[in-house]
Design goal:
- By secondary structure, the protein is mainly alpha-helical.
- The protein is built from five helices and no strands.
- The chain is elongated, with a radius of gyration of 18 Å.
Length: 103
Protein backbone atom coordinates (compact mmCIF):
# COMPACT_ATOMS: atom_id res chain seq x y z
CA UNK A 1 0.00 0.00 0.00
CA UNK A 2 1.37 3.42 -0.92
CA UNK A 3 1.13 6.29 1.50
CA UNK A 4 -0.14 9.70 0.37
CA UNK A 5 2.12 12.10 2.27
CA UNK A 6 0.04 15.09 1.16
CA UNK A 7 -2.45 14.06 3.85
CA UNK A 8 0.24 14.14 6.54
CA UNK A 9 1.40 17.32 8.25
CA UNK A 10 4.79 17.96 6.61
CA UNK A 11 6.71 20.76 4.93
CA UNK A 12 8.96 20.55 1.87
CA UNK A 13 12.63 21.43 2.20
CA UNK A 14 13.42 24.72 0.44
CA UNK A 15 16.82 26.19 -0.33
CA UNK A 16 17.74 29.63 0.99
CA UNK A 17 17.64 31.05 -2.55
CA UNK A 18 14.07 29.80 -2.95
CA UNK A 19 13.06 31.38 0.35
CA UNK A 20 14.54 34.73 -0.64
CA UNK A 21 12.37 34.82 -3.76
CA UNK A 22 9.14 34.20 -1.83
CA UNK A 23 6.65 36.90 -0.86
CA UNK A 24 6.71 37.90 2.82
CA UNK A 25 3.22 36.53 3.38
CA UNK A 26 4.30 33.18 1.96
CA UNK A 27 7.29 33.15 4.30
CA UNK A 28 5.02 33.83 7.26
CA UNK A 29 2.77 30.96 6.16
CA UNK A 30 5.79 28.67 5.95
CA UNK A 31 6.84 29.73 9.45
CA UNK A 32 3.35 28.88 10.71
CA UNK A 33 3.49 25.50 8.96
CA UNK A 34 6.89 24.70 10.48
CA UNK A 35 5.63 25.65 13.94
CA UNK A 36 2.61 23.36 13.54
CA UNK A 37 4.63 20.19 12.92
CA UNK A 38 4.87 17.42 15.53
CA UNK A 39 7.67 17.67 18.10
CA UNK A 40 8.88 14.10 17.49
CA UNK A 41 7.83 10.75 16.02
CA UNK A 42 6.38 9.58 19.34
CA UNK A 43 3.85 12.45 19.36
CA UNK A 44 2.60 11.71 15.85
CA UNK A 45 -0.13 9.13 15.37
CA UNK A 46 1.55 7.84 12.23
CA UNK A 47 2.31 4.21 11.53
CA UNK A 48 5.73 2.94 10.45
CA UNK A 49 4.81 3.05 6.73
CA UNK A 50 3.83 6.72 6.94
CA UNK A 51 7.02 7.66 8.77
CA UNK A 52 9.09 5.77 6.22
CA UNK A 53 7.26 7.45 3.31
CA UNK A 54 7.89 10.92 4.76
CA UNK A 55 11.57 10.16 5.31
CA UNK A 56 11.87 8.85 1.74
CA UNK A 57 10.22 11.99 0.37
CA UNK A 58 12.71 14.26 2.10
CA UNK A 59 9.96 16.40 3.65
CA UNK A 60 10.26 17.91 7.10
CA UNK A 61 7.95 16.18 9.55
CA UNK A 62 9.26 16.66 13.08
CA UNK A 63 10.72 19.56 15.03
CA UNK A 64 13.33 17.27 16.54
CA UNK A 65 15.01 16.87 13.12
CA UNK A 66 17.98 18.98 12.08
CA UNK A 67 16.13 19.72 8.82
CA UNK A 68 13.42 21.50 10.81
CA UNK A 69 15.92 23.52 12.83
CA UNK A 70 17.72 24.61 9.65
CA UNK A 71 14.48 25.43 7.81
CA UNK A 72 13.16 27.44 10.75
CA UNK A 73 16.42 29.39 11.08
CA UNK A 74 16.49 30.06 7.32
CA UNK A 75 12.94 31.45 7.29
CA UNK A 76 13.66 33.62 10.31
CA UNK A 77 16.86 34.91 8.68
CA UNK A 78 15.08 35.85 5.45
CA UNK A 79 12.22 37.49 7.36
CA UNK A 80 14.77 39.53 9.34
CA UNK A 81 15.87 41.17 6.08
CA UNK A 82 12.32 42.23 5.21
CA UNK A 83 10.69 45.50 6.18
CA UNK A 84 8.63 45.28 9.35
CA UNK A 85 5.35 47.15 9.34
CA UNK A 86 3.75 47.31 12.78
CA UNK A 87 0.15 46.20 12.91
CA UNK A 88 -1.00 49.16 14.97
CA UNK A 89 -3.36 49.15 17.86
CA UNK A 90 -6.72 47.41 17.81
CA UNK A 91 -8.68 50.67 17.73
CA UNK A 92 -6.93 51.83 14.55
CA UNK A 93 -7.59 48.51 12.80
CA UNK A 94 -11.24 48.59 13.82
CA UNK A 95 -11.60 52.20 12.64
CA UNK A 96 -10.07 51.36 9.25
CA UNK A 97 -12.37 48.33 8.89
CA UNK A 98 -15.38 50.48 9.79
CA UNK A 99 -14.40 53.10 7.19
CA UNK A 100 -14.01 50.43 4.48
CA UNK A 101 -17.36 48.95 5.38
CA UNK A 102 -19.23 52.29 5.27
CA UNK A 103 -17.94 53.60 1.94
Amino acid sequence: MTVDISKLKTAPVLKLEQLQSLHTGTLLSRLKTLRSLHECEEQADWNAEEIAAVRASGHIAFKSEDKWKNAFADVKAVLATREHIPRGCKAIRQQAAHQRQNK
